[in-house]
Each structure stands twice: as structure tokens, then as C-alpha cells.
Specification:
alpha/beta, Spore Coat Polysaccharide Biosynthesis Protein SpsA, Chain A, 2 domains, 9-stranded mixed beta sheet, 3-stranded mixed beta sheet, 12 helices, 17% strand
Length: 314
């Protein structure tokens, strides 16, 4: 970090030249942990002051990466702020911190491994804000720009089936299909319902947040996608599912009436009645991790492995 940066409360903060005096209508909030957000920052740049960018390094500890991000932020024409945390605070707390550092009436959460699919990506969000002033809206995500790699074949197949859905299909279960990868939130809504910092590790904090918000506000789904570039290997997928089991239990405890309608819950309940889980659950994982097995069989095994992990919570 440069010598003129300010260190406050576990954070070092840098503003670019366009930041002071700007009055944006939209704050784009980008947390990162190891992923390099430079390509996304450059894709979002523009000469107008209608949107600002706030990017947060959640304790990565990579000086070279921080230097690249700072240099990029300083060079942006769009108002931008870079916050570097000296220690990791976690997904929920980091996003809450980003919201506190932003100035606009609407907040757009974007993951650092995303890339807009349209050159008018921000203009579409700004048009929606001007037209409808939505409380919450999700734009969806795609794999349109994601390179095809053999080690990501399983994640690609699973994401295309369950996550890369059009707005009409997502709207059938609006709170279920909310992810912080491309999420618009009005500030007064977020001030009332922030992300639950009791979640640890990966998974479910965004869906749980949407369950709370949906009790009082409509969740709008639109087609304004960004590509998810950061597909995982099968081993990393399994590791994330293992992390998420405790978070799933937290969601079940708080929102049993909602989550009980999800297929993942129903399958977990069914598997809970099957004896000897500690014997057959590792076998499901082994199939999911077998590169030579058909992708369809691997995807089924991975979904059943996740449900078997979640069986402990139901």
C-alpha cells in the first residue's frame, strides 16, 4: 500500500482521484480473497459518476496482488475505493463492511471472479433503479465467458443445471436463487437486514439473507447476467460442501418452514433414514471425484454426497 493510505480498524483504505465529491446512484461492492479482481474492475470502468466501486481485500496477505489492485483503482475514471483488511473477517462481515463504506442508495454486490456479459451491464442496473427503485434484484449469472477445462467439467455441469437459470425460472422461488455474485439491494433494506455474521466458511449466507428479506420485500429477478469465471475442481467442490454443512444447519434452525420445501432438504431427510452413512457417504464422494466416470453420474454422486452431509442437520 502507498504511504498516503489510511489505516483504521483492521483496514487500510485508498480512494482514487474521482472519489471525492462524487454523488453516485449505485455502489458496486466487490470483495476478494485470493482471486484477482483487476479484470472486473477494468470492465466496470466508465467516465460517468453514476456508479462508484468499492473493492475489499479480505485479508489475502498478498502484497503483490494488493499493489496491482491499488494501482488499478487509482487509474480508474470511475470513483473507486480500495479497502485492504489486515486480517480475514469472513464473507458476511466483509460484505457488511463494504456496504458501510459505500455512499449510494443502491448497492450491487459482485463477486471478484465475475465478468459482465454485456457492455451496458451497469447501465441496465441504473435503468432499473431509475424506473422501479427495487428493494432487491438479482441479475443472474452464466458461464458464457468461462474457459472450458477438464478439471472443471463437473462444476460446469452442475452449475448449468441448477444455477444458470433465466429470470422467469428463478422467480418461481425468488429467495432460493439469490447469490451475492450479482445482487442489487436498496440501502434502507440492507440497513435493516445485513448479512448474518454468524455464518462461517462457505455457503448459504446469501440465501438465508434472502429468506429474511423476502418476508417484507419483493425480490425481483432480471436477465442482466455476469459470467462466473471461478469454477472449482471436484475436490474443491466437495471441500466447500463439507464446510457448508454447519451453515445449512443454521438455515434449517432459523427457516425450517422455507427450507423444508427445497429438494436438498427432502433428499437429506430421506438419506438420514439410511443406515451406515459413514460407510457409503465416502463412496459417493469417491465417484464424484473420479475424472473418468461419466459427468452425469459424477454430478448425481456429488449431489447425494452433499445431501448426505446435510442429513446431519435435519
Amino acid at each position: 500500500m502507498s504511504a498516503d493510505a489510511n489505516a483504521v480498524d483492521n483496514a487500510v483504505m485508498v480512494d482514487n482521484a474521482a472519489w471525492t465529491g462524487a454523488a453516485p446512484r449505485l455502489s458496486v461492492l466487490i470483495p476478494f480473497m485470493r482471486d484477482d479482481p483487476v479484470a472486473l474492475l477494468k470492465a466496470l470502468d466508465g467516465a460517468d459518476g453514476a456508479a462508484e466501486i468499492v473493492v475489499l481485500d479480505d485479508g489475502t496477505g498478498d502484497d503483490a496482488l494488493a499493489a496491482r489492485v491499488e494501482a488499478t483503482v487509482r487509474a480508474l475514471a470511475r470513483p473507486a475505493r480500495f479497502i485492504r483488511l489486515l486480517a480475514n473477517e469472513g464473507r458476511s462481515r466483509g460484505r457488511n463492511r463494504l456496504a458501510g463504506a459505500a455512499r449510494a442508495r443502491h448497492l450491487l454486490f459482485l463477486d471478484s471472479d465475475m465478468l459482465p456479459d454485456s457492455p451496458d451491464f451497469l447501465a441496465r442496473w441504473l435503468d432499473l433503479i431509475a424506473r422501479d427503485d427495487p428493494a432487491v434484484a438479482f441479475g443472474g449469472f452464466s458461464l458464457d465467458q468461462t474457459p472450458r477445462r477438464r478439471e472443471h467439467a463437473l462444476h460446469r455441469a452442475m452449475a448449468l443445471k441448477s444455477d444458470c437459470l433465466g429470470a422467469a425460472e428463478r422467480a418461481l422461488a425468488p429467495e432460493k436463487h439469490v447469490f451475492t455474485s450479482n445482487l442489487l439491494v436498496r440501502r434502507d433494506v440492507f440497513d435493516t437486514e445485513a448479512f448474518d455474521e454468524g455464518f462461517a466458511g462457505w455457503g448459504w449466507e446469501d440465501v438465508e439473507w434472502a429468506m429474511r428479506v423476502a418476508r417484507r420485500h419483493a425480490i425481483v429477478h432480471i436477465d442482466n447476467t455476469a459470467t462466473h469465471l471461478g469454477l472449482d475442481t471436484a475436490r474443491d467442490q466437495a471441500r466447500k460442501y463439507e464446510q457448508s454443512a454447519a451453515n445449512f444447519a443454521r438455515v434449517v434452525a432459523a427457516h425450517a418452514e422455507v427450507v423444508s420445501g427445497y429438494p436438498s432438504y427432502r433428499v437429506a431427510r430421506a438419506l438420514k433414514r439410511v443406515p451406515a452413512r459413514k460407510v457409503w457417504r465416502p463412496a459417493l464422494k469417491a465417484v464424484a471425484l473420479t475424472d473418468l466416470a461419466p459427468v452425469g453420474a459424477r454430478a448425481l454422486a456429488m449431489r447425494l454426497y452433499r445431501a448426505a452431509l446435510y442429513a446431519e442437520a435435519v
